[in-house]
């Protein structure tokens, strides 16, 4: 049981990174982006296609990230151009449609679960130490460090810099931001491009652990959204914690035979309880403030 | 008002014609002149895609037609895509039986067809010879007999290979099981236990998506020497390597036997795959020559599923040729129920339909090993559990 929890914890960094990408997008452009992992997977597969063709890893990585940035920017531009005044749910619905479309295109281009499996470069695969029979590779530490960097870096960017302030204004009141002179559409497309590139890097980092084919990687959106829920799509530190909790829960639920069959559901049930608990507090606060 | 009248009239006409149409269909069971219509339900779109299967069956039929057909009548394949959608699958079977008046089904490859349509096939007294039997009902129905051992037969063969051929004492099983298939897998494990007297060191039938490290750590703790596995390959082997499991033999199910998967397995890991037919990666193996020539000539992808398609079409044609007189649904069904076993080189045991209440004629598996980014065919022919080779 302890070993399984430790094993689960080593997955937590990757889950946290995925959740952070969702929260990042939401905080910066106020869209719950269902197409996020599909865009990242697209860039990741551009990268491996280029390495297959003989290009070196670093150039492929840069070109893959650029292609994800471009795709994400195109998606962002479409949302800014045609859906700027719409509600969040409409924008989310657009990204759901794009997720379906991108997954279908990706399946055609890069193959299915068995025919399109790819071996992603795993530069951080070397073991660092062993805890309770679980070998912890360098990638776990890199994922955690990357997750902490995003949490801290973006937190500071949003609260301590002029750019962060403009980005917050853009996310919360795009129309007002434009009135006060913030170049909203251009900034928004830039943010979309940046998030696309970061997501691609995250996907490449988690691919050796979480899946080597297009559909599995683009399907990681469900995990990403579950983790983002823990942070209520706002809190970066809570999202980071959510990733680790999800990993631990997965590990624990796979170790207990009686709940093994439902291990896919257990983490989500716990998240549901967490959300209910938090909303209960909010209702309590609201009732008292009246 | 006028529209209401039209609707009422249309309903009246329908209520008259539909029962008449149905009666006509079930009486005729396919016409006695013109082409012999053969149905197939294939996954072309959706999660389970086998577009090469109907193309290959059609290629076999074209070959037969070019040589004069069956008793002067041409074979015509009517394939419908069910997109792994239960509603579409049921509708496809009904349409093929009632509207297209097919005499039988040959070369189906759908993940939902058998379970959904088994009752229809029994009721309509029509037989189905799937190219790829996927769900448990394909192997436990009176009117369905696939040409592959299927996931259950293959599981027994893989366990048998691990314990008897590789001589591993601690055999473990990590499976992703589709809803409703758990019983079949349990029965397959039980069959292996009955044959060998051995039990699993660890069994997990709930391997899910996400990081596989937790399952691998459990395997390590249980001291598994061989692990029978059927889920996503890439991350499994990457993490098994990280966990230092280079000395464990991993046996993969037939769905993992693809060129892409051979490339993702790290060279220092020990990975085997069970194959349902002769390994498709070696065209010199018995029966593979004809298949390779056929699919190459038609530009069809070389996959294990296309092997199943050739075999299903071949055995179908062979049985059809034994029918004396009219070829109708009734005579076709009778011929299959009374047929003699056919020795087909691509599989481990003879294929037969016969009169039984369930049919799983093909047993055993061949094994390949991942080496240098490809699959190496292992000697020793088919491993048929319980049969000394």
TrEMBL record, chain A:
The keyword Cell membrane applies. Its main location: membrane. InterPro entries: ABC_transp_permease, BCAA_transport_permease. Keywords: Amino-acid transport, Cell membrane, Membrane, Transmembrane, Transmembrane helix, Transport. It is a multi-pass membrane protein. It holds the Pfam family BPD_transp_2. It is found in: Cell membrane. The chain crosses the membrane at residues 6-24, 31-51, 57-80, 92-111, 131-158, 187-207, 219-249, 261-277. Belongs to the binding-protein-dependent transport system permease family. LivHM subfamily. This is Branched-chain amino acid ABC transporter permease. It comes from Actinomadura yumaensis.
From TrEMBL, chain B:
Gene3D superfamilies: 3.40.50.2300. Keywords: Signal. InterPro entries: Leu-bd, Peripla_BP_I. Residues 1-24 form the signal peptide. Residues 35-373 form the Leucine-binding protein domain. Pfam families: Peripla_BP_6. This is ABC transporter substrate-binding protein. It comes from Actinomadura yumaensis.
């Amino acid at each position: 049981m302890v070993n399984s929890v430790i094993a689960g914890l080593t997955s937590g960094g990757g889950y946290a990174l995925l959740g952070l990408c969702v929260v990042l997008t939401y905080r910066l452009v106020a869209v719950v982006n269902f197409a996020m992992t599909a865009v990242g997977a697209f860039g990741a597969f551009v990268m491996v296609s280029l390495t297959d063709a003989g290009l070196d890893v670093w150039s492929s990585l840069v070109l893959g990230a650029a292609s994800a940035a471009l795709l994400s920017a195109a998606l962002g531009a479409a949302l800014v151009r045609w859906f700027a005044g719409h509600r969040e749910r409409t924008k989310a619905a657009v990204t759901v449609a794009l997720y379906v479309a991108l997954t279908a295109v990706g399946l055609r281009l890069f193959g299915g679960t068995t025919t399109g499996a790819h071996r992603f470069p795993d530069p951080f695969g070397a073991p660092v130490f062993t805890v309770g029979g679980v070998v912890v590779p360098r990638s776990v530490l890199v994922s955690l460090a990357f997750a902490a960097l995003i949490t801290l870096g973006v937190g500071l960017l949003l609260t301590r810099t002029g750019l962060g302030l403009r980005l917050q204004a853009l996310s919360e009141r795009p129309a007002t931001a434009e009135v006060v002179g913030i170049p909203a559409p251009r900034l928004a497309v830039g943010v979309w491009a940046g998030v696309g590139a970061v997501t691609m890097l995250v996907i490449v980092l988690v691919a050796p652990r979480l899946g080597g084919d297009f559909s599995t990687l683009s399907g990681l959106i469900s995990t990403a959204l579950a983790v983002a829920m823990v942070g209520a799509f706002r809190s970066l530190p809570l999202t980071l914690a959510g990733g680790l909790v999800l990993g631990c829960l997965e590990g624990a639920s796979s170790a207990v035979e009686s709940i093994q069959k439902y291990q896919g559901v257990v983490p989500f049930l716990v998240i549901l309880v967490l959300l209910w608990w938090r909303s209960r507090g909010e209702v309590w606060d609201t009732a008292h403030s009246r | 008002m006028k529209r209401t009248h039209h609707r009422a009239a249309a309903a009246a006409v329908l209520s008259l014609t539909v029962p008449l149409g149905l009666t006509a269909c079930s009486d005729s069971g396919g016409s006695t002149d013109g082409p012999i219509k053969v149905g197939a339900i294939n996954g072309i779109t959706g999660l389970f895609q086998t577009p090469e299967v109907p193309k290959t069956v059609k290629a076999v039929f074209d070959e037969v037609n070019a040589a004069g057909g069956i008793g002067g009548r041409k074979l015509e394949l009517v394939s419908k895509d069910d997109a792994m959608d239960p509603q579409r699958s049921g509708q496809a079977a009904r349409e093929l039986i009632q509207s297209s008046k097919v005499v039988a089904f040959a070369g189906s490859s759908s993940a939902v067809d058998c379970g959904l349509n088994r009752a229809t096939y029994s009721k309509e007294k029509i037989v189905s010879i799937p190219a790829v039997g996927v769900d448990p009902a394909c192997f436990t129905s009176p009117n369905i007999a696939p040409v592959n051992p299927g996931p259950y037969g293959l599981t027994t063969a893989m366990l048998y290979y691990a314990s008897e051929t590789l001589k591993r004492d601690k055999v473990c099983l990590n499976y992703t099981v589709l809803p409703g298939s758990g019983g079949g897998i349990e029965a397959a494990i039980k069959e292996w236990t009955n044959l060998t007297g051995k039990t699993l060191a660890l069994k997990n039938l709930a391997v899910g998506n996400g990081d596989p490290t937790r399952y691998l750590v459990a395997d390590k703790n249980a001291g598994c020497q061989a692990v029978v596995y059927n889920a996503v390959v890439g991350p499994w082997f990457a993490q098994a390597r990280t966990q230092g499991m280079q000395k464990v033999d991993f046996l993969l199910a037939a769905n993992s036997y693809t060129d892409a998967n051979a490339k993702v397995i790290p060279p220092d890991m020990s990975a085997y795959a069970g194959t349902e037919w002769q390994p498709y990666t070696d065209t010199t193996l018995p029966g593979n020559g004809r298949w390779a020539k056929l699919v190459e000539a038609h530009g069809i992808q070389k996959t294990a599923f296309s092997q199943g398609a050739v075999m299903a079409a071949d055995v179908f044609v062979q049985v059809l040729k034994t029918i004396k007189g009219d070829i109708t649904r009734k005579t076709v069904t009778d011929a299959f129920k009374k047929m003699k076993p056919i020795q087909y080189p691509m599989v481990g045991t003879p294929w037969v339909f016969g009169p039984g209440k369930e049919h799983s004629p093909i047993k055993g598996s061949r094994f390949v090993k991942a080496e240098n980014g490809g699959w190496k065919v292992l000697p020793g022919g088919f491993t048929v559990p319980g049969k000394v080779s």
